[in-house]
């Protein structure tokens, strides 16, 4: 365990000291949706023009996590008290515990005891929480409590109807809007899983997306800037969470960042083009956090 910690620490140190924000072609490169190389200043400039920004990550990509933090710092510097953060990694019923940590009522140990932290929290997400705490930034727990996603996976959206009013307060209004024509759900619907459960798999995914969109909108207001990080599948191709936001507020300016890895970084592979407004490509051989 100590060896792994040292390796991870050294990897983060290398990212922090050896890589300028503009990117090192040997390790990573920013691209536009059409595959044109972008520099750091352009990514920041475009991001700041939006109302809501999504950083779609690969969960074990340490370069992406470092850039999540750098973009948060840049946005906070520009937006000040208008800056809000939110993330998939905290579920909506963890908001009270998260708030208590951010206000200094709980330490890291108590946060771990009382919230459902991801296994890679210490290496990948703790720096973002520490940034929020230090700068008094509001951080919203946007994701569906996993027990309710499990309910939908087992019994469809109808399984949510029997929940108590308190339980439903952690979810968007029922019934959940759902469209199998949306590509990310259609892909799941016709994926390798077979049987009745396959019909509910995209519904469980849609519940997560709808919940995240709900709590983003609940905490955003005109003039505010909401910065959200999540798995790239939840926002790639302006689908998932973004689709739900657009159903409620088609006027929103939304900027999507995606991450992927490639063997060669000289040009963006065709399969990644169009999936986001900016795409961070990292060297697939670079160390990961797990």
Provide the fold topology:
Blueprint: H1 2-18, E1 28-32, E2 37-38, H2 40-48, E3 52-57, H3 62-79, E4 83-91, H4 95-102, H5 108-114, H6 121-135, E5 138-143, H7 146-155, H8 165-168, H9 183-189, H10 196-219, E6 225-231, H11 241-248, E7 254-262, E8 278-283
Parallel strand pairs: 3-6, 3-7, 4-5, 4-6, 7-8
Antiparallel strand pairs: 1-2, 1-8
Calculate Rg over CA atoms. 19 Å
Q: Roughly how many Å apart are the termini? A: 12 Å
List how many beta strands DSSP finds. 8
Amount of beta strand:
15-25%
Assembly category: single chain
List unreliable stretches of 5+ residues.
1-18
* The level-1 CATH class: Alpha Beta
What general form does the structure show?
Answer: globular
Q: Quick one: biggest sheet?
A: 8 strands, mixed
Q: How many structural units, i.e. domains?
A: 1
Task: Write a brief caption for the model.
It contains eleven helices and eight strands. With 290 residues, the protein is an alpha/beta fold.
Structure in words:
The chain is of the alpha/beta class and 290 residues long. The protein has one domain (26-283): Rossmann fold (3-Layer(aba) Sandwich), CATH 3.40.50.11550. The chain has eleven helices and eight strands. Strands 2-1-8-7-3-6-4-5 form an eight-stranded mixed β-sheet, with helices on both faces. The longest helix is centred in the C-terminal third of the chain and has 24 residues, at 196-219. The protein is globular and about 55 Å long. The model is unreliable at 1-18 (pLDDT under 50).
